[in-house]
């Protein structure tokens, strides 16, 4: 009983974290990707680079700054709690930043691939700007959204460094899969580590396969 | 001529990168106006500006509604415009049927079933309705795009070289549909083209653009034979004339038309309605000139003409501009060798006989009578 909850809790926590993070990323990332795809501002390349930073920064660097940002002098102080670090909310915040490029980039690419013509056609067919976004941009960019959501979810599931820096190892709150595996190895519980690791291995394989299939079949469906 | 309220009024001025545009023209409230010119002359920019997709300074008025002037610029989705782009640009995520009704669903009255069926019928779209847009041929895609544009109940139809992406066979297959479409519409059509063959077949009026300026504008039949424009001196010069059908002989398929008091005989495969006005096409290379008053010849058409002008056309030929009878309302061109012109001592003002080897219908569809 004890063992099964030690195995299951991190799984459910991780799925919840990845789910919430992916939802937030889709909401935040869509307008950002739209702006990056269509803005003529010179600042957009700077913004694009900022979005891409988590791809190359060591997670410890990101985690360190997040620790400060979530603390008493940052968001924590702003919301009257001492700190958001070592809490589920803090993990969500960190994950959103950390997985941002994995969601924004595919959506941006999808928007750019549509080009201006379908929107011009829609405009001459009486579609208002909002209508054009909903009835033309969103459906045509659907493969990009699916890819972005899958990658964002998977990447959040797999994060370790940032979690360790800002989340610690609180069961049910911040003890996600990757941290749990680390813990099991530390305590020489190789059987539990095997179960979780093999599970993640299969999960990662399925994720990459699904992204490939999405890109091939949905992406090419558009002439 | 149509009422002023139906007219299309366009005056645009501005720069687009290196390119400067300064055009002003009006188009009739019905019928087809070709916007003709070589690539880079500003044809597409004019069309895009009328639709509101491009912004220049100026004024655009369609069917009594001001779409643009000094004080306002109506956004494209509030303009009752039908736009057929060079590439069909169908929505890949929608079925053919949904593509067709995309615009109609966004009009105040929604999709009118009868109108939808009529359009499907007119453009032969029935067999395509359940096909995937990705599996349509170029001509089929363009037909769907045309249907989609007119189903949005436009007050003007803008067509930007809709046939240029098609090969000759597909073009020939789609042209009758375009003609049927134009004939059935009661709205002005602006048709951008760089292909004079297309223009001759489809247009009533023409606006010739050169480097962003209007070089000439007016009824096609006048512009084609306007000496200052150079169409007449091209080796494949063609004239468009219109005449009334006064008789048709069922036994040999020859129709008799009245052209400003003179008779034209031509072969017609289908029985024409007596009294209807048809557009005729006469190629300059099919016209020869003679002073002999009567001739035993296989040529059916002998017309009394007056020479309006003689222009050099290449090294060996001259283009002889001819007025039918003595008036200059109906004019056409004869392309004759320089040698014959010198031998006959052709002179401006001289009256003689033109023998026309071949007359064809410019359009297979009957269009609304227009002056």
Note the topology:
The complex is a heterodimer of chains A (223) and B (371).
Chain A: H1 2-38, H2 43-52, H3 59-70, H4 75-78, H5 88-114, H6 117-124, H7 129-140, H8 142-158, H9 161-166, H10 177-186, H11 190-218
Chain B: E1 8-16, E2 19-27, E3 32-36, H1 43-51, E4 57-62, E5 65-68, E6 81-84, H2 96-101, H3 113-122, H4 138-151, E7 156-160, H5 168-184, E8 189-193, H6 196-202, E9 205-210, E10 213-219, H7 220-224, E11 238-249, E12 254-259, E13 262-267, E14 277-283, E15 287-290, E16 301-313, E17 317-324, E18 331-337, H8 338-344, E19 351-356, E20 360-361
Helix pairs in contact in B: 4-5
What do you see in this structure?
The complex is a heterodimer of chains A (about 220) and B (about 375). By secondary structure, chain A is mostly helical. Chain A has one domain (about 1-40, about 55-220): MetI-like fold, CATH 1.10.3720. Helices cover about 75% and strands about 0% of the residues of chain A. In chain A, helix 5 (about 90-115) packs antiparallel against helix 8 and helix 10 (about 175-185) runs antiparallel to helix 11 (about 190-220). Chain A starts with a helix and ends in a 5-residue tail after the last helix. The model of chain A has no long low-confidence stretch (mean pLDDT about 90). Chain B folds into 2 domains: about 5-225, P-loop containing nucleotide triphosphate hydrolases (Rossmann fold); about 280-360, OB fold (Dihydrolipoamide Acetyltransferase, E2P) (Beta Barrel). The longest helix of chain B has 17 residues, at about 170-185. The termini of chain B are close together. At the A-B interface, helix 6 and helix 7 of A face strand 6 of B.
């Amino acid at each position: 009983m004890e063992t099964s909850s030690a195995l299951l809790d991190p799984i459910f926590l991780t799925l919840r974290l990845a789910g919430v993070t992916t939802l937030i990323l889709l909401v935040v990332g869509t307008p950002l990707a739209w702006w990056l795809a269509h803005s003529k501002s010179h600042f957009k390349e700077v913004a694009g680079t900022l979005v891409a930073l988590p791809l190359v920064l060591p997670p410890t660097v990101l985690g360190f700054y997040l620790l400060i940002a979530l603390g008493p002098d940052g968001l924590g102080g702003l919301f009257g709690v001492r700190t958001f670090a070592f809490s589920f909310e803090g993990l969500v915040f960190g994950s959103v930043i950390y997985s941002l490029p994995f969601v924004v980039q595919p959506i941006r690419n999808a928007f750019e691939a549509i080009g201006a013509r379908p929107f011009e056609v829609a405009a001459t067919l009486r579609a208002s700007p909002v209508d054009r976004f909903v009835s033309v941009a969103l459906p045509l960019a659907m493969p990009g959204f699916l890819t972005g959501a899958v990658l964002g979810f998977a990447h959040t599931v797999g994060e370790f460094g940032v979690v360790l820096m800002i989340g610690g190892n609180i069961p049910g709150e911040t003890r996600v899969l990757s941290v749990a595996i680390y813990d099991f190895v530390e305590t020489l519980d190789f059987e539990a580590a095997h179960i979780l690791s093999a599970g993640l291995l299969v999960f990662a394989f399925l994720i990459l396969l699904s992204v490939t299939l999405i890109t091939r079949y949905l992406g090419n469906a558009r002439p | 001529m149509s009422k002023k309220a139906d007219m299309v009024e366009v005056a645009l001025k501005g720069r687009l990168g290196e390119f400067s545009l300064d055009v002003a023209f009006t188009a009739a409230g019905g019928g087809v106006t070709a916007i003709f010119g070589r690539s880079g002359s500003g044809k597409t920019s004019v069309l895009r500006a009328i639709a509101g997709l491009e912004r220049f300074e100026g004024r655009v008025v369609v069917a009594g509604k001001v779409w643009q002037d000094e004080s306002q610029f109506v956004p494209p989705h509030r303009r009752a415009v039908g736009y057929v782009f060079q590439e069909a640009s169908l929505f890949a995520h929608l079925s053919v049927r949904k593509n067709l009704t995309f615009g109609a669903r966004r009009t105040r009255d929604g999709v009118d079933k009868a109108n939808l069926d009529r359009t499907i019928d007119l453009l032969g779209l029935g067999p395509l309705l359940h096909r995937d847009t990705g599996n349509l041929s170029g001509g089929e895609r363009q037909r769907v795009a045309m249907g989609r544009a007119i189903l949005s109940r436009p007050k003007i139809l803008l067509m930007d070289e809709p046939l240029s992406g098609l090969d000759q066979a597909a073009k020939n297959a789609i042209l009758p549909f375009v003609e049927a479409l134009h004939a059935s519409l009661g709205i002005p059509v602006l048709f951008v083209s760089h292909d004079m063959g297309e223009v001759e077949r489809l247009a009533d009026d023409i606006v010739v653009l050169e480097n962003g300026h209007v070089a000439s504008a007016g009824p096609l039949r006048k512009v084609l034979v306007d000496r200052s424009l150079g169409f007449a001196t091209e080796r494949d010069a063609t004239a468009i004339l219109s005449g009334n059908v006064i008789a048709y002989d069922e036994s040999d398929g020859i129709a008799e038309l009245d052209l400003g008091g003179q008779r034209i005989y031509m072969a017609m495969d289908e029985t024409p309605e007596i009294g209807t006005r048809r557009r005729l096409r006469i190629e300059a290379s099919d016209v020869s000139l003679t002073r002999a008053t009567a001739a035993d010849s296989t040529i059916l058409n002998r017309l009394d003409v007056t020479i309006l002008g003689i222009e050099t056309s290449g090294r060996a030929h001259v283009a002889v501009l001819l007025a039918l009878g003595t008036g200059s309302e109906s004019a056409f061109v004869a392309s004759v060798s320089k040698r014959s012109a010198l031998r006959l001592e052709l002179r401006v003002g001289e009256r003689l006989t033109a023998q026309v080897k071949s007359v064809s219908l410019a359009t297979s569809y009957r269009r609304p009578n227009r002056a």
